[in-house]
Write a structure and sequence with these properties.
This protein is of the alpha/beta class. The protein contains 6 helices and 14 strands. It has one domain: 4-Layer Sandwich (Metallo-beta-lactamase, Chain A), CATH 3.60.15. α3 crosses α5.
Length: 226
């Protein structure tokens, strides 16, 4: 398997390129519009064919590169079935599997950060989007977010996976690239709660600033960045 993690310093977004070393087919998770040519250069360098691109949810802090990648590579676009993006090629259901040559990626519906948030599991690698971050969790105060649903997604779905599962988040703001679920259980301050109610109370008191250009980004991303 071929695996590359690309960081966007403007939005602190991680984009993931995953490919089969046998068939040379590739998938990209959470592309950033401004970095599309970088991804294409990487695909060419590695002699890979991009066949699918996934957005974990409708992003508020950057514009997706999904449509541009589709235009330039003829790949297919994928999101979870709860997305408001009607132009996406394929909408996957909770538990549905995406195949790339011999690689199998499982979709996991993890609402809370947004109502359309999905995580994706490949073997022992979890791509959690904004649902679960390293030493943090995704905010729940816009895009039909829900702290109650986030608690259920994190504690009753993601943290039920093996503790050695590698966590690859959609963002990181402190220079970290990967963690494990076991490490997050022990040290993530957002996870040191005793109940759903305690988590909801904590999240309701974050008082975070609204992302810049949130409405512009959401409107563009509903059109997959067009």
């Amino acid at each position: 398997m071929i695996f590359k993690q690309v960081f966007d310093p403007k939005s602190y977004t991680f984009t993931y390129l995953i490919a089969s070393s046998i068939g040379r087919e590739a998938i990209i998770i959470d592309p950033v519009l401004e970095n599309v040519h970088e991804y294409i250069e990487l695909l060419n360098q590695l002699e890979l064919k991009l066949v699918k691109v996934i957005d974990t949810h409708i992003h508020a802090d950057h514009v997706t590169g999904a449509s541009k990648l589709k235009n330039e590579t003829k790949c297919q676009t994928i999101m979870g079935e709860n997305t408001p993006a009607d132009i996406v090629d394929f909408k996957v259901k909770d538990g549905e599997k995406i195949k790339i040559d011999q690689l199998i990626i499982k979709a996991i519906y993890t609402p809370g950060h947004t109502s359309d948030s999905y995580s994706f599991l490949l073997n022992n690698q979890l791509f959690s989007g904004d649902t679960l971050l390293i030493n943090g969790t995704g905010r729940t105060d816009f895009q039909n977010g829900s702290s109650k649903e986030a608690y259920n997604s994190i504690f009753n779905k993601l943290l039920k996976l093996p503790e050695e599962t590698l966590l690859y988040p959609g963002h990181d703001y402190n220079g970290k690239k990967v963690s494990t679920l076991g490490n997050e259980k022990k040290f993530n301050p957002r996870l040191q709660v005793n109940s759903e109610d305690q988590y909801i109370e904590m999240m309701s008191n974050l008082k975070l600033a609204e992302p810049k250009e949130i409405h512009f980004n959401i409107n563009r991303n509903i059109m997959l960045g067009k």
